[in-house]
Design brief:
It is a single chain. The chain is of the alpha/beta class. It folds into two domains: 97 residues, Urease, subunit C, domain 1 (Roll), CATH 2.30.40; 303 residues, TIM Barrel. Helix content is 27%, strand content 20%. It has twelve helices and 16 strands. The strands form two sheets. Strands 1, 2, 3, 4, 5, 14, 15 and 16 form an eight-stranded mixed sheet that branches. β1 and β2 form a beta hairpin. It is globular, with a radius of gyration of 24 Å. The N and C termini lie far apart (62 Å).
């Protein structure tokens, strides 16, 4: 299969080596005989590789804390050891090597870092001015060729504000104006000069899609779609075209393998992304509010044999939570946003816990530069509302909505999202119960490096736009 995203840098380098070798040997057969077969043409699907390097870290032990492990477990009087950027041990009465920084966590809580799987930081950065509106390529209903990372401004002060709220990983998405809005990017919440310095190594790309009101509102007077039925027709035709594109590359590779000299297909950047979805390498993140729309998309998914990973906003997921559980599709939801447009009208505050209780993958997301700063409080509201109707969900279970489940949604659950030995030391030390409005993140670690300390304001980064400017005649 030609159109596959190579995310492992070693394998990617190997692929380039093989291509180079093919190029060197063109014109010569296996036995040294002359041949006119041209080398196999392939598509580089990783032209903007991550340059992320973990920051320096020091072996750290937090002891005597209440620990939520992110996968439903709670440890009282627990300890966690962070070493070489990983979770080295978690339990009780842990010992640590000489030179370890020891933090007394008495009265404090430790959790995995929060993962916001729906953010527009960097593509709608602060300050909120027109020149900074980079999230929606509203030029066609299908803009699958655009990549959000090419709009992300790494110096958006919103990233540090999110870090102060315990957020260690984010997915930056394009907006929701289009049926196919383009690729998302998953980032580590670390300072970076370029977006590639922040890119989560090996994280799959996402494809942002949108259903319902937004595409028909934006394109109703621009040639369509203008209705929900127009939306669905647009998805179906596009996926049919994507299958044909993928097949053309498959056929080309098969003919080349037989020793023929076929002409390679014409490159199409939109179809590269869609073929990546069909190959299972790119994850679909779909903006969808109403249950009937989500059910329709399940049928489209089945017709064209691709996988929707997550419905975002998903205000009515509670109505079809059993179907979502059966299909293994996550729902990324707000705790209580509703009613701001007609398709958001039938929201209920028990949405998140009802999805969880049905055995489906429930996530609390932000979609907001403000909400991302207090996602722990959003989860607390959803937990309270669920337990008020008798669901009996524990705090340890509820934290999965903020860490493990969004990690699963982004395809990085083997690397982060829980405090399990060997995973990244993406960790938050809270000064109290994180489900309390009075609690704040005290220290935040990404890959074991302490990037935020609430008690050390001098260590906080400050944006140029927050500093302001010195005017002419002002004191220097």
């Amino acid at each position: 299969m030609i159109l596959r995203t190579v995310t492992n840098p070693v394998l990617f380098g190997l692929a380039l080596f093989v291509l180079a070798a093919c190029g060197e040997q063109s014109g010569q057969g296996a036995n040294g005989e002359s041949t006119d077969q041209k080398p196999l043409v392939t598509v580089n699907l990783n032209p903007f590789p991550s340059t992320y390097m973990p920051l320096a870290s020091t072996t750290t032990l937090v002891e005597n804390a209440t620990i939520l492990d992110g996968v439903g477990g709670l440890i009282e009087n627990g300890s966690i050891l962070l070493q070489d950027g990983k979770v080295a041990a978690v339990g009780q009465n842990l010992s640590a090597p000489d030179g370890t920084i020891v933090i007394d966590g008495t009265g404090k809580w430790v959790t995995p870092g929060i993962i916001d799987n729906h953010s527009h930081l960097g593509v709608y950065p602060s300050p909120n001015v027109g020149a900074h509106q980079e999230g929606n390529e509203m030029t066609a209903a299908n803009t699958a060729q655009v990549w959000a990372e090419h709009s992300v401004w790494p110096q958006d002060p919103g990233f540090h504000r999110a870090l102060a709220g315990g957020v260690t990983t984010l997915q930056i998405l394009p907006g929701s104006a289009n049926l196919f809005g383009g690729r998302s990017v998953t980032v580590k919440n670390v300072p970076g000069r370029t977006i590639q310095d922040m890119k989560f190594p090996g994280a799959p790309y996402g494809l942002k899609m949108a259903c319902g009101e937004n595409p028909k509102r934006v394109y109703g007077e621009k040639g369509g779609p203008a209705t929900r039925m127009g939306n669905v027709a647009g998805y179906r035709q596009t996926w049919a075209d994507a299958h044909a594109y993928k097949q053309s590359w498959d056929d080309y590779a098969a003919k080349h393998e037989k020793g023929e000299d076929p002409k390679p297909p014409k490159r199409d950047l939109k179809m590269d992304t869609l073929a990546g979805v069909l190959s299972g390498d790119i994850l679909v993140h779909m903006h969808c509010y109403r249950a009937d729309d989500m059910a329709t998309m399940l049928d489209v998914m089945a017709e064209f044999d691709y996988k929707i990973g997550t419905f975002h906003h998903a205000v009515e997921s509670y109505k079809i939570a059993d179907k979502l559980a059966e299909a293994d599709i996550c729902s990324a939801m707000w705790a209580d946003w509703w009613g701001f447009k007609m398709e958001a009208y039938d929201g209920i505050r028990e949405n998140v816990p009802f999805v969880h209780a049905a055995g489906a993958c429930a996530i609390v997301h932000s979609d907001s530069s403000i909400g991302v700063q207090r996602l722990n409080q959003e989860a607390a509201k959803a937990l309270f509302d669920g337990n008020a109707v008798g669901l009996g969900i524990s705090k340890a279970e509820a934290w999965t909505w903020l860490s493990y489940n969004p990690a699963k949604s982004l395809g990085v659950e083997d690397e982060t999202g829980s405090l399990e030995v060997g995973k990244a030391a993406d960790v938050v030390l809270w000064d109290g119960d994180p489900f309390s409005v009075y609690t704040q993140a005290e220290k935040v670690f990404v890959d074991g490096a302490q990037l935020y300390d609430r008690l050390d304001p001098d260590g906080w980064p400050v944006s140029d736009f927050e500093l302001g400017q010195i005017g002419e005649g002002d004191d220097k």
